[in-house]
Amino acid sequence: FSLQLTLKSGNKPMVLQGDRGLSQKGAAPGNASFYYSFTRLPTSGEISINGERFGVQGNSWFDREWSSSALADDQAGWDWFALQLDDGRDLMFYRMRGKDGEAQRFSRGVLVEADGESEALTLGDVELVPTRYWQSAKGISYPVAWQLSVPKAGFDLSVQATFDQQTMDTAVAYWEGAVDVTGTHDGVGYLELSGYAKDGD
Fold first, then answer.
1. What values do phi and psi take at 138, rounded to 5?
2. Residue 167: CB atoms within 10 Å
3. pTM strictly above 0.85
4. Which of 67, 122, 129, 187 would suit a FRET pair with 107, their CA atoms being 20 to 30 Å apart?
């Protein structure tokens, strides 16, 4: 297959995640990243599959993040959501999980309004409950469906994997792929799940 897309700047500006672009992921100063997003870029182009061409259009989500450290010693991984909703709002939230399975205070996010204004979200603003698990060929169980609520924004969302088999065959095992959103709002998005593999997986 081949892919050729053109992404254009839309009516939403760049979002600096965290504190003016510095996104803290753990207690140590080095457990952080520089991180910015363009949450809704008008996109058009063409996908070719087995010689058959398809014109496509939509909105892309563009993230750029870089850092020099891995997880803190007490952290297992994260659950990372990036959602585009039908009312023009966009939601990013990552839940940092400790090795005890509990969400940590470093969990953060942002709500981007249709006009591009943004508001930071903390762990207390977002309620996340996994509702369905899927087991990969390696025997790793991933939560591929969630109930996600942001009461102050009026969100009560069901987030479901578009299809279950979206694992990444890399040195680190994780699930990363497309999701569909229903509930108080419809939408599409992206979910990344890390830290669910046991040692040796």
1. -85, 0
2. 19
3. yes
4. 187
